[in-house]
């Protein structure tokens, strides 16, 4: 069964068991969970009166702020698994998405490859695609040679059979449809050590990397993340975090041109991130598709992202743009070719492009006291514009 | 970052170009640990104000050059030309564009027109 052709499943690629498994593991959309106590008389009485006896469970995760990479690292495996499974926050720094580096190393050592991580499936898919391209190029060359020979002899060439993505079958009989790993495989480090005594024990050096926007969302809105100072390992206060996340864009932070700037890149990007997260979308980075963010309805494991977001900052007061020490991307009028390119890239992968205009309030309206707290975020406004390419000759409805 | 095992190897280079320190760190880790490149050496590129990397992909012999940069930077063709010169004019180089969520996108750049392989 070719990995690059259309899947035999009609509704999506995953089997029912896989989907049920995913629904079970990724059941919670946010790290905070409501737990209802087992039914008791008091609980039923309270619910009759309109009160809920549910308790809020806060996992209290911990992360370390790293200014060089402008991110927050979650090195604790339990916390990083939790943050990924409840809301798809962060990305494993040595993996495609979920931190799976240790699982891949263990698989490589065992060399049995009974269960494959998404990276290994991707490698298989790439190898198949490469083989398909070689076969197709050979078929085209053969067809061309055949046409030449036929023309020279003055006869009709035999009809050429060029494989396409849908019709090509891998020639080797190696099974490439190994099942994806069950989620319990993630913490197999200690077991692998016992199996391979002659190799040195594997230490998990991967961490979950949260962007500053994700970290601030967890810290400020959900209060489920503690950020530690990288040098002292002390937890940072909310004020310190708010200051530090903005100062990372100011080099050096003490310069007066950076004082009281409402157009700090952290604030502008956070306004857009918060807007979509608050609406319930899972927001991930979109560099693979030349955009700023990708929106997932439930999460990357369920379905491909449907929307691609480009954040376009707009200054309410043009004088602020002149005096800005930050070079915010996309702030100047963009060219038609740029828009066309980004739209093309995303239509190829069946994503809809959305331009998110973030209006930066005028500096004259914002006092320094307002800037020292997240209350200044209410003054931003976010508008989105959906883009679809329209071809009048072909789209009649 | 200091507690990470790769820090010792990179320690002499990171403070030299602080703006590119995060990118160098992420690219080095990705190549060494995730992509499993061998014989990685770090090359100082003063004209480009960063350090480049050279190494081998697994199961190949060619030495490939990688230059890390950050998504928020803007580069020019002049900069690319200088990088090629400083690296000793390799046939092509890979530009590793780093982002804050640790995604790295590699772009292969060649000096001149190159026909696609297939």
Keywords:
heterodimer; A: 397 residues; alpha+beta; 5-stranded mixed β-sheet; 35% helix; B: 118 residues; 3 helices; 5 strands
Structure description:
The complex is a heterodimer of chains A (397) and B (118). Chain A is α+β, with helices and mostly antiparallel strands and 397 residues long. Chain A is built from twelve helices and twelve strands. Chain A has helices at 16-25, 41-49, 77-85, 101-110, 118-153, 189-195, 212-222, 238-247, 265-278, 318-322, 336-348, 368-371; strands at 33-35, 55-57, 61-66, 71-74, 91-92, 208-211, 225-228, 282-285, 293-296, 307-315, 352-360, 381-387. In chain A, the strands form three sheets. Chain A has a five-stranded mixed sheet, with helices on one face. In chain A, strands 8-9-10-11-12 form a five-stranded mixed sheet. In chain A, strand 3 (61-66) and strand 4 (71-74) form a beta hairpin. Chain B is an alpha+beta fold. Chain B has helices at 7-10, 21-34, 77-86; strands at 38-45, 50-56, 63-70, 93-98, 104-109. A five-stranded mixed sheet of chain B has the order 1-2-3-4-5, sandwiched between helices. In chain B, helix 3 links the parallel strand 3 and strand 4 (93-98). The A-B interface holds A 66, 68-71, 90-95, 101, 133-134, 136-137, 205-206, 209-212, 214, 230, 251, 265, 284-285, 287-288, 327, 329 and B 1-2, 4-5, 14, 18-19, 21-22, 25-26, 29-30, 33-34, 71-72, 74, 97-103, 105, 118.
